[in-house]
Amino acid sequence: MLIQKLRAWWTNLTDPSDTRIRLRDGDALLVSVQDGRVTAYTFDVALSHREFITRMLGSLPEGAWVGTIRKFDGRIIAVNSRTYFDNQLPAPQEVFDAVHRAFR
Fold it and tell me: CA 69 to CA 99: how far, in whole Å?
């Protein structure tokens, strides 16, 4: 049983076919998503969402989403930017899907 768990854990860490960016529990990032894909991200959470968008994209494109993602207890969560959306609710499903295609 322990050997099987260790083998599964190691395979998950070293799977070369999984090209998603690997996050550790506790990691937090600022992320921008547009048209179903992550367009920009940074681990520099000291930046405000506005400064992140200014540095990475110049301005927030029409229809784009920006917010914070965090890996907690093995799950990745995405939260809206209060600066841009005036709330800190969970991200819409299409954003959640895009984030999970880019990060693991």
Answer: 8
Tokens (6 digits) for 55 = 């540095």
pTM of the model: 0.82
For the chain, how are helix, strand and coil distributed in percent, rounded to 5?
35, 30, 40
Other beta carbons less than 10 A from residue 90's beta carbon: 13
* pLDDT tens sequence across 88-101: 999 999 999 999 99
* Cβ–Cβ under 8 Å, residues 77 and 88: no
Contact residues for 34 (Cβ-Cβ < 8 A; gap 6+): 61, 63, 64, 65
The pair phi, psi for residue 37, each rounded to 5°, is -145, 155
Q: What is the pLDDT of residues 18-69, one digit of tens each?
A: 889 999 999 999 999 999 999 999 999 999 999 999 999 999 999 999 999 9
